[in-house]
Amino acid sequence: MKEEVKDETQYIKYSKRIIELCKRAGVKKYNSKFSNKLYDNYQHITLQCIRQYEQKGYERFIKDLPDKSKFLEFLGLESIPHYTAMHKFTKRIRGTILDLVLAMALSRTGIKKIIGGVDGTGNKPNRASVYYVYRSEYFKRKNKKTRRGRPKKKRKVQRFIKVFPFVELRKQIPIAVGLSRRSGNESPYFKPVAKKAMKCGKPFKEVPLDMGYDAEHVHEFIREEMNALSIIPARNENVPVWKTQGRYRKQMKRGYSKKKYHQRSKNETVNYVIKQLMGEMVYALDWRMQNKELLFRYIMLSLIHI
Questions:
Q1: Are 168 and 205 in contact (CB under 8 A)?
Q2: Could you read off the pLDDT of 158-202 as tens digits, one per residue?
């Protein structure tokens, strides 16, 4: 019983912060004046964040809600919503609104200038193992009777949802998230994520990144658009400075502060923590729903660190 009460008080604290972030982001309580006003947007966003924290599906989460009486009383829920109502809300809400809510995560901190960083990580888009997919394809081919024998063994490429969280490194609070399904160079994804992070309304001081973001256009955006110091080690250390292309990349070859650069390792800490707390599986099937589920996770993580 003590653990349940403790969880409820924690959930009440988290819900207070979520509602505060929604108000700061300018999220309306109801989408329309003709709404039935059974459940508002603040209640839905709070429930979705708690659901991701508990790593439960819609139906199971709704079944367990009656046990949290104080939490329901605080949210002002006279009746428990059906699990399909939560699913429809996730489908209806725009990702840009959730981006604004996440950008307000630093509002309660005393940070005046942001030391930020980005480091990509991968999330699995389904629960099926590689062997299960292989066997299911085998039986499909067997039923069609196109060819005899087992299918050729090919190297199965595992698909991941690439996530690029922009993190305030001192507090380890994510303030923006970029998403992609493509693999390869990470430098093209920095600019879209940084633009989302700039909506938080606070200036930037330093942006240390790893070697994967080594590109002159990344340096130019950080120094000229964000008005911050970029610290990105240049590739090919054996190549002399006079052969290196780019003004800022040449500066990196001449030297930079190792102490400031190693702040970027906290990005990896944030990636580890969110997978330990909420798992690396994304249970939604549609890619839009997958993106929103990940945004709810990072909103919840930002509340835990505030």
A1: no
A2: 678 999 999 999 999 999 999 998 878 889 999 999 999 999 989
Side chain identity, residue 20: E
pTM of the model: 0.86
| Tokens found for residue 139 | 């039986």
HEC string of the chain equals CHHHHHHHHHHHHHHHHHHHHHHHCCCCCCCCCCCCCCCCHHHHHHHHHHHHHHCCCHHHHHHHHHHCHHHHHHHCCCCCCCHHHHHHHHHHCCHHHHHHHHHHHHCCCCCCCEEEEECCEEEECCCCCHHHHHHHHHHHHHHHCCCCCCCCCCCCCCCCEEEEEEEECCCCEEEEEEEECCCCCCHHHHHHHHHHHHHHCCCEEEEECCHHHCCHHHHHHHHHHCCCEEECCCCCCCCCHHHCCCHHHHHHHHCCCHHHHHHHHHHHHHHHHHHHHHCCECCCCCHHHHHHHHHHHHHHHHHHHC
Q: What is the pLDDT of residues 28-68, one digit of tens each?
A: 999 888 888 889 999 999 999 999 999 998 999 999 998 88
